[in-house]
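User: Structure tokens for this complex, please. No commentary.
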Amino acid sequence: MPPAEPLAAVPSPTDAALITAWQGGDEQAAAQLVRRHARALARFLAGAGAPEPDLDDVVQETFIRAFRAVGTFRGQCRFRTWLLTIGGNVLKDAHRRAKRTRVVPLADDLRSTDGDPHERAVAAEAERRLGDGLGRLTRMQREVFLLRAQQGLEYDEIAAALGTTPGAARVHYHHAVRRLKECLT
Amino acid sequence: MKDDATFHDAKLQELAQRLGTRAAERLDVERTAQAVVTRLHAEARAPARPSVWSQPAWLKIAAALVIVVGAGAVARGVRQAPSGAAGSVETVDLSDMSAPQLRALLESVGQPGTQEPVSSQDVGLEDLSPAQLRTLLASLDIQT
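Assistant:
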């Protein structure tokens, strides 16, 4: 009996296919989009200043707004990039409502049991200072920095998502880096 | 110096990539997905509640214009109200008037636009046109 051939990997549907399926009434397509992008969105939002206790709510609200407005998504950038910019708007609204300052989860890093405790403390301190520095940037500088340095996007895509030019996005990024370096030294 | 800058760039990049990672790892993605689907499902089943602010922009602008124009008309009416006595129109039967009353009336008609009182010495019967004189005489005949 010949050995069984390995099953051909089923390609996962693209974001565009899932969006079309959701628009056709397939709720599981929406759930799959959430599963695919929720962590990246949560990282972006946490980096942009979302307090951890509110993170789940902000992520949910971002997806809800995105699905409501998905008809306006014209593919000018990737779905995830578009989602991150919506997340930035949701976070801004949440900050305005709550009028509270960023809560940096400093203890999270100290709670970790991996590695040398001194190194963990140093890393946590650096992360806290970076968080503080990000909080002092303009919204555009902060979002450009996170999209570039955290999410690894190219300037073209950042510019398309934020409604600016690649050159302007580059300038915002360099201003952000200069100011953040000042916070870290 | 350049090495130092490169070091800082790399450090910044590394920190940025780590930022929010732990918080994101703690997110219960499956629970979030189900919560989002539940909310979307509830929204889809809920009857549409059209609010004022969900109307098309032109409708809102038209409504605002109506309010502004209406308010302007009301304000203008209020401003003119104190002098409303002058604006009121009364019907007067000339046949019921005496000669001095008619004279006074003719004097006031003969000076349109002026607010100053007109003395009887300023205007006499010689100032009336033939038609006005005929009307006056006819009314005097009726009275007598």
